[in-house]
Amino acid sequence: MKKKKKILTSIEPYLWLLPSMLLMAVFILVPIFEVFRISLSKVSKAGIVKGFIGLGNFQKVLSGSAFPIVLKNTLIWTVVVVGLSTLIGFILAIVMNNQFRGRKAARAIVVFPWATSLIIQAGVWKFIIDTDYGALNTLLMQLGILDKAANWTPTPAAYFAWECWVGIFVTIPFVMFCVLSGLQSIDNAYYEAATVDGATYWQRMFRITIPLVKPSLTVSTVLNIIYVFNSFPIVWTITKGDPANRTDTLVTYLYKLAFYNGKSGEAAAVSVIGFLILCACASVYMVVSMRKEGSDE
Amino acid sequence: MRKMVTLGLAALMAGAMVMGASAEEQVDLNVIAAQYGQNTAAWWADFVEEFNAANPGINLNVEVVSWNDIYTVVNTRIGNGQAPDILNIDVFADYVDDELLLPAQDYVSEETYGKMYESFLEQSNIDGTIWAIPDLASARAMYYNVDILEAAGVEVPTTWEELTAACEAIKAYDDSIYPWGIDMTTDEGQAAFAYYTWNNGGGFVDENGDWALNSEQNVEAIEYAIGLVNSGYTNSDPSNDTRYDLQDMFGAGQIAMVIAPNSLPTYVADGGYEVNYAVAPIPCNNGESVSAGVMDRFMCFNNDYSEEELAAVTTFFDYFYDDERYSEWVLMEGFLPATKAGGEAVAAADESMAAWVDIVGSSKFYPTAKTEWADVKQGVIDVEQQALLGEDVQTLLDNLQAEIAG
Fold this sequence. Notes:
The complex is a heterodimer. By secondary structure, chain A is mostly helical. Chain A has one domain (about 40-295): MetI-like (MetI-like fold), CATH 1.10.3720.10. Chain A has helices spanning about 1-40, 55-65, 65-95, 105-115, 120-130, 135-140, 155-185, 190-195, 200-230, 235-240, 250-260, 265-295, and strands at about 40-45, 50. The radius of gyration of chain A is 25 Å and the shape is flat. Chain B has helices spanning about 1-25, 40-55, 65-80, 95, 105, 110-115, 120, 145-150, 160-175, 190-200, 215-230, 245-250, 265-270, 305-320, 325-335, 340-350, 350-360, 375-390, 395-405; strands at about 25-35, 60-65, 85-90, 125, 130, 135-145, 180, 255-260, 275-280, 290-300, 335, 365. The relative contact order of chain B is 0.16. Chain B is an alpha/beta fold.
């Protein structure tokens, strides 16, 4: 009887975990498996899977002239958006952590870009920078700064820079709130002690603030890399990756392959490539954080 | 209490079985239809009600899907082995390639089949078999802003030379106006390719129907179009300005001339624009203006039908293409009819449509019957966008031709 009870207590936690494990298996593992399967299959334009073709889809994707451009864009997009939004978000968090009048209102305003849907944000920015009916040109012309509508997007690179800016703009609030929560958990006694010892502002910043908010910064950066890498609405709404893939990222490119060109197999291959890149990033993070845990012990 | 619940459940189950039995006697007919406009879904809802009342043996079910989703919806259904019985969409060759469709004459009655314009039926011909029937069409022509052209002292251009001169004159008159609108976007860049190459004696295919993307005429045509952009005669961003952007700018008087479908007047009116415009043939370089036609279709998937089921499909098409009902539908959607009787009815109902019925009769269509069409469509858009970035048109088209025709 006692033994029976022991078995029950040892399997009990797993029983409680079972429903969520099942849900994860059905809604996460099955789709991932399906994408891998399609990426290794020949798929007709009408969507019928016509058997295994090995790495044929990957070969086609990798040998295409668009792929290097798209991969480069994706890396630039992820590094620039995550890097700059982290930097600006961090600075804003420090500002917002100070006592000043209207701090609550300021914090609420900073959340707006985050609280609005990405499609709306991207649509609004597309409207702002448009050469022919854009709000920016109208404003500058009304103010007398410009006498003729300026073309804010004369080259694909200019378009891409604007898209990166929109990405940064909508990502800042997330970083800011992560850092802010870290800042608020720092005990004021550290700063008081440092001030008594005669530490300068920068010394306090680099010796106290940054080391103590580092865990929140790491979490926000890892999550942001995943979100931004997979972000679709901004690029799609503003340029659809045009002209000639010059502003495509992996996600918009695979969408075009799947739903404009009917190449589901190649689209799945691009998806797998993106998945592997993210897995590599995530494993670097895991290795680093596990090593740190080991050295802490 | 429990007894009552049990009894109630039993009664429900029995009822369900009886209903199931009566439903089994009916033939189910599942249709996926494209959403052409705001009123499409309501029109089909009424249609289903009337049809089911008139045909008690058939249980018609029509699902109206937007153009943004229809390809994904249909492909997912096919992938899951749940293809619709009847599909209303633009493309068909990929389904034929996968042997999913029935030949049109297997399920369309002779009477209904005879109503269609021959040239339209021919657009769905693969290897001598007609695989789909046309549901409606639209055609393109040049719209111009009468006031701007008059103020700039320009005649309506009919040739490329006149078009260039007109652009120059309009630009000189007011350089805040774009003389000419060009759309080379992912949305519809293939249309631009058609407008210029067809009006220069070129096109997607040669006279044998083989891909001829890098012909001399095509290179000249695309270079001419890119030249208009580089001379500053067009909207500033042809890779991103969709046809709808151009139509808005035309409505606002910001573009003087633009190639657009016969639905432009409705679009401009709905947008609340007041612009004084007229319509003319697309300017050409070889003496013969060609309009671009776009045609959509009905097709029937091969779902191993019994005789009754196939008869239900035939009944559906006879009912839909009934002259009066069909004309009402085409007029409601603001497109051009695909049947002769429909053409007469539409021309009689609206004088301005009469000219369009003639235009669509002589239009050229995209080679959608060829399986490489999806690749060609994306390929020519890519060529245009690369050419806009300054790459050589001849090289780009040579590469595309090599990629497509092997």
